[in-house]
Amino acid sequence: MTKPAARIIAAVVAIGVICCAVAVIVAVHSPEEAKNATPERVPKEVQGGESMTSEEIWERALEIYESLHRSGIVERALKEANMTPEELPDDVTEEVKATVQFEDIIRTWEFDPQNKQVVIYASLALNEEHETELSAIQGREVGGWTFNVVWEPYVYVSSFVRRALKGANMTLEELPDEVKEEMENTEIGGMRKWELDPQNNRVIVYTYIIRSEEYEKEVRAVQGKEVGGWTFNVVQEHYVPAVVRRALKEANMTADELPDEVKEEMENIVHFADIGSVRTWELDPQNKQATIYVYSIPDENDVDTLQGREVGGWTFNVVHDADYEKEYEKELEQLGAELAQLREDHPELQISGFMTSPTEIDMWVRNLTPENEALNGTVIHNRTVQIYWSPIDYALRIAREEAGW
Asked: Has UniProt tagged this entry with the keyword Coiled coil (predicted)?
């Protein structure tokens, strides 16, 4: 690790204990848009000029964004082939980038450095126009490399079916087509996962219980249904919130040890009770008590309504954790100031925003730098730092700089 990066990490550590939820800053694009992407220098063929209107700036930004997107696609395909970008001639790289526009029908790219071949696997019957244009690439030779297209029949298989097949150590071909189709068409609220039992020809779908006539009707329509020699079964389970699962673990209990009505009450409390911020749950199986420690209570009346409630032989109690609340408010105020100071003291991080949770510190940056990349994945105060970069923001900034704005 470089010395600047080490100093920055030390500065972040100095922030102290980070509270449950705080956001300091600015609006940014969704991190799912381009988490941990790598910006590249804008190619010459898409460089812009000066005296541009706002509409031209936006069009220019889209060109830059598209260039970054194509570069990222090529980079991932090379990584899967255990190749580096330097091993591929520049004109071959540009040719691959040109095929990215057909990615709606492309399943994957495959690089064969020994035979100098680029194989594109694409699906038929998705986009006739793109099929025609991609077919024209067949056999094309660029920079000593040959481009080939392998056409495959389009078969949509959802992720939950793929996971079920993998869990049963089965291939797609081993499952009858009508069974796959039935799985894809099955609609039950609260579906959690699917399981396949090839020995007994059973398809099992696990769902969270929903108290509604529509849900019960959906379950009845699937329960015991036989398709292609396979029987469909529905296993209904109560949803156990994460905070309750942690309490069960600390009490050395399993969810099965709780009565169904107690689990249902816990779910309702987590989702609907307006009792403030919950710090933790505590379960006492000997005395059959569930204690909820809360802070920042908006209305004491809501707490009083829940206090002492008895469900399924268990008693629910709410404890106002005043000491934690004072500590939380003090740390929250200090945190905002220190995060802002960190951003001011380290401009090389190019930070545009922070958001913290009990497990993560999300850090949005205007551009990736060696300094902020060094922070990605580090653990600070039991929270993992996640670096987020938006290529849209980056493209707009570059376009404005080119125009002299």
From this structure: yes
